[in-house]
Structure formats: C-alpha cells, structure tokens
Amino acid sequence: MSGSLLLTRDLDVPFPAPQWPEGITLAPFREADAPACHALLRRAYDGQESDAAPSFEEWWRATGGDPEFDPDLLFLARATDRSLAGLALCWTSSFVKDIVVDPDYRRRGIGEALLLTAFTTLQRRGHSRIGLKLRSDNRDGARRLYDRLGFVLG
C-alpha cells in the first residue's frame, strides 16, 4: 500500500471494554457473510486503493485463502435490520488488514468498538502488539481514532 503509515499499539497497556452503540451488535462471521463483507469494503473504500478486488470471487479467493485468515478474527458489526454496519478483519499475525464502517453508520463509535474487540481477542491469543496501516490520505477521523486508542508510529 503506497503512501501509508505503519501504526502499532501495545496490547499490554490497559484498554477499555468495547461499548457498542445502541442498535449495533457484534456478530460472528460465517462464510455466507463474505459477499456482504466484500460489498461493504467496496462501498466504504469508494474507489480508493484497496485489496477489495473488483469481483467478489477474486477478493474471497485472496482473503479466505490467505494463510493468515482466521474467520474468528473477522469481526462484524450488525445493525438491527441485520445489515453490516462495519467490520474489522485481522490477520493471525495481529495485524488489522481492514477496518471499515458503512458511511451511513460513521461517527457512532462502531470503529472503536470493533478495534477494542480485536484488542481483547488478540490479547487473549497471547499477542502483545497490534498493527495497522493508515493511508496517508485517509480522513482525519481515522487518525484521531487510532491516536485515541493508543496507536503510535512504528
């Protein structure tokens, strides 16, 4: 990913439990959710550079077939109508591959709840650090979230 910054966060530093906004719940990933995940990634990235290949088949083959993919590390935020409000896809190496919130659900705390869920899960798996890449042209909102949650350059 060109024009990106690597951010990391120490998972040994305390962090709060996730607080889900009203009407949003954490849901387990099932393979039948994969098309909706791809559609959300495409919508959220809205033409920006991403790994959400043009076709679902290409994306799912690359994502589901990656040796670092674990379906238990694909966290889904569902709205009351069962639509996807957001998702966080983490690799087994404790890296946030993708985190997106549907544009209609932004600024409600969903991204924070997804990341805190990832922190908890990865910490329980014995990881002491989590990383992610931030596009240098990303909106200020994402950077503020990462700063607030203790991510630093490196």
In short:
With 154 residues, the chain is of the alpha+beta class. The chain has four helices and seven strands, in the order E-E-H-H-E-E-E-H-E-H-E.
Task: Characterize the structure shown.
- With 154 residues, the chain is of the alpha+beta class.
- It has a domain at 21-127: 3-Layer(aba) Sandwich (Aminopeptidase).
- It has four helices and seven strands, in the order E-E-H-H-E-E-E-H-E-H-E.
- It has helices at 34-45, 56-64, 110-124, 140-148; strands spanning 4-10, 24-27, 74-79, 84-91, 95-101, 129-135, 152-153.
- Strands 2-3-4-5-6-1-7 form a seven-stranded mixed beta sheet, sandwiched between helices.
- Strand 3 (74-79) and strand 4 form a beta hairpin.
- The longest helix has 15 residues, at 110-124.
- The chain is globular.
Structural class: alpha+beta
CATH structural fold name of one domain: Aminopeptidase
Biggest β-sheet strands, sense, barrel: 7 strands, mixed
Low-confidence stretches: none
CATH architecture of one domain: 3-Layer(aba) Sandwich
Order of helices and strands: EEHHEEEHEHE
Q: What is the CA-based Rg, rounded?
A: 14 Å
Beta-strand portion reads: 25-35%
- Name the CATH superfamily classification of one domain: Gcn5-related N-acetyltransferase (GNAT)
Number of strand segments: 7
Calculate the mean pLDDT score and round it.
92
Q: Specify the CATH class of one domain.
A: Alpha Beta
- Which strand order does the major sheet show? 2-3-4-5-6-1-7
User: How many helices does DSSP assign?
Assistant: 4
Distance between the termini: 16 Å
Give the CA-based shape: globular
Helix fraction? 25-40%
